[in-house]
Amino acid sequence: MSTTKVAEPTLGSKLAAEAVGTFLLVFSIMGTGVFGAFFMVPEAAPVGGTVPIAVALGLGVALTIGVYAFGPISGGHFNPAVTLGLAAAGRFEWRNVGGYLVAQVVGGLLATTVAMAIGVFGPDGWLAAAQASGFASNGYGDHSPGGFGLVAAMIIEVVAVAIFLWVIISVTHPDRPTPFAGVAIGSTLFLLILIAIPVDNASLNPARSLATALYGGGDALMQLWVFIVFPIIGALIAGYTYRAVFDNVKR
Length: 251
Fold this sequence. Notes:
This protein has 251 residues and is an all-alpha fold. It is built from 10 helices and no strands. The protein has a single domain (11-245), classed as Glycerol uptake facilitator protein. It is globular and about 65 Å long. One of its GO terms (cellular component) is membrane.
C-alpha cells in the first residue's frame, strides 16, 4: 500500500491565506454595513433590521467561504481571538501566533483602506457621512446601535467569542470531526453577530475592530481597547476550559 504525504504549506502561504481570509471578512462588513447601508447617497441609509441581517449574513457567508477556500492552507482563523483561543486549547502552536496576528491585522486594514478608496470616488458627501456614522466601527454608550453601555459591550464580547471558540474547537476536533464544519462555523458567526449588533455593533474580532476604527474617527479609536481586550478574554476562557468541560470520556 502506497502512502502519499500531503505537502505542508509554507509559513508564507499560511500568512497569505490568513491575510486574504481576514480581508474577505472585513470587506464583507464594509460592503453590507457601509456601502449597502448608504446605497448611493447618505440620505438613503435604511433603518430598522435590514442592515443588521445583511451584515450578519454577509459575515457568515464570508467566513464559510474563507474556511473552505483558505482553511486547508492556514486553518482558517481570520481573527486574532480565534488564533489565541486555539493556542490556549493546545490546537495551535504558540510560536506561530505572532505571525498570524500580524497577517490578520494587515488583511483587515487593507479591506477598510480599499473601502476608503472606493468611497473617495463615490457621490458627493458619501464618504464624509459614512465616516461620521463610524465607518462600521464598534462602540458602546452613545456609539452603541441600541444605546448599551460599556459593561454590556464587555459581557457580549466575552460570551459571544467564548461560544464561538467552543463551536470551532468542537467541530474541528481531531477525534470527532463534524461533517460540514465550515457551515457550522459560518452559521454560528451569523447568529452571534445578529445578537451582538444592537449592543456594540458586534466585534468578536480584534482585527475587524482595529481596521474599522482606523477610519471611524476619534471616538471609535478611544473605545477600541474594549474590542481588543474582551474578545481575547472570551477566546482564552474558551480555549483553556474546553478540554476540562468537553473532553471528559468514560474510562
